[in-house]
Design brief:
The chain is mostly helical. It is built from 15 helices and two strands. Strand 1 and strand 2 form a beta hairpin. Helix 1 crosses helix 4 and helix 3 runs antiparallel to helix 4. The structure holds 3-methylbut-3-enyl trihydrogen diphosphate (2 copies) and magnesium ion (3 copies). The site of one 3-methylbut-3-enyl trihydrogen diphosphate has 11 residues, from helix 4, helix 8, helix 9 and helix 10.
């Protein structure tokens, strides 16, 4: 096993442990709520965002227990965003991670409420997780995550994604939508790490900021390519939804070959500048390869 595969298994386990301890330990007023939260959180995704956090942490020499709260919180916010994204009022999808979507199992109302519950739980985790984080670090992390998931992040991006008129969109506008709906949370992974490690070096912040932005965009373009090319059995979610929902995507805007070339050039633009940094960047190149070389 190479380094990134080992780290991926570790990230998965650390997030699962933190998630379970928070969901199972909690006294909720409803067992359906507990059960449905565990259904979506156990039904493991790739956990690419926690992995990014631990990879950035390794590159900057930050101990893992300073990163667990942020990794778990970000995975919860990501999972809530998928539950709502799959609802009939949004992308209307019946399958997620190879299993029926939350609303197919528990109904629309519970699925909305599971999302409503996972979001504040994410912030509670950052506020209370027994990590050696200072109060100021917790406040700063909560601020970064709120922005990345709300008015300057996922919610704003999802509104743009749903309301944009595909015919008139430019590539710049599409990049903006992709940044808000997907890239913002990957950028927030960097904030989790730099806040936990008190990193203030301008060159490091700028170069890693560029890295997470480019990887975030490449990641969404690849997701859009998969929606056209990959079998639902491999994908774990239906394909063809972007077309049936009349979404503007890179393959639709510039064609499949150009979209694939764009992913490759974003990979280079993300990883080349890392060479100027005096930190361990191999793990970040490995992460970019891992994410962009994925099969689903
Ligand atoms: C899917 O995210 C939604 C996008 C932002 C493209 P992932 O591909 O990370 O989904 P999971 O968490 O592995 O299921
Ligand atoms: C999802 O984008 C972005 C989110 C913020 C959830 P997609 O709608 O393309 O994600 P999938 O294809 O359903 O996973
Ligand atoms: Mg969507
Ligand atoms: Mg979707
Ligand atoms: Mg998609």
């Amino acid at each position: 096993m190479n380094n990134i595969t080992v780290l991926s298994a570790i990230a998965r386990q650390r997030v699962l442990d933190a998630t379970h301890s928070y969901i199972e330990r909690k006294t909720t007023a409803s067992t359906v709520l507990t059960e449905s939260m565990l259904y979506v959180m156990r039904n493991g995704g790739k956990r690419l965002r926690p992995l990014l956090i631990y990879c950035l942490g390794e590159s900057l020499g930050i101990q893992m227990d300073l990163l667990d709260a942020g990794a778990c919180a970000i995975e919860m916010i990501h999972t809530y965003s998928l539950i709502h994204d799959d609802l009939p009022a949004m992308d209307d999808s019946a399958l997620r991670r190879g299993q029926p979507t939350c609303h197919k199992v528990y109904g629309d109302a519970i699925a909305i409420l599971v999302g409503d519950t996972l979001q504040p739980l994410a912030y509670e985790i950052i506020a209370t997780h027994p990590s050696p984080l200072s109060s100021q670090q917790r406040v700063d992390t909560i601020t970064a995550l709120s922005q990345a998931s709300g008015v300057l992040g996922i919610a704003a991006g999802q509104v743009l994604d749903i309301t944009a008129s595909p015919k008139n969109l430019t590539q710049d506008q599409l990049d903006t939508i992709n940044y808000y709906k997907t890239g913002s949370l990957l950028s927030a992974c960097l904030h989790v790490v730099t806040i936990a490690g008190n990193i203030s070096d301008e060159m490091i912040l700028e170069t890693l900021g560029n890295y997470t932005k480019k990887i975030g965009l490449a990641y969404q373009i690849q997701d859009d390519i998969f929606d056209i090319e990959v079998d639902p059995n491999i994908l774990g979610k239906p394909n063809g939804l972007d077309q049936s929902n009349n979404k503007l995507t890179y393959p639709r805007l510039i064609g499949m070959t150009a979209a694939k070339n764009k992913v490759n050039s974003l990979f280079d633009e993300a990883t080349q500048p890392l060479k100027q940094l005096n930190i361990k960047t191999d793990i970040l190149v490995a992460y970019a390869n891992f994410v962009l070389g994925r099969q689903y």
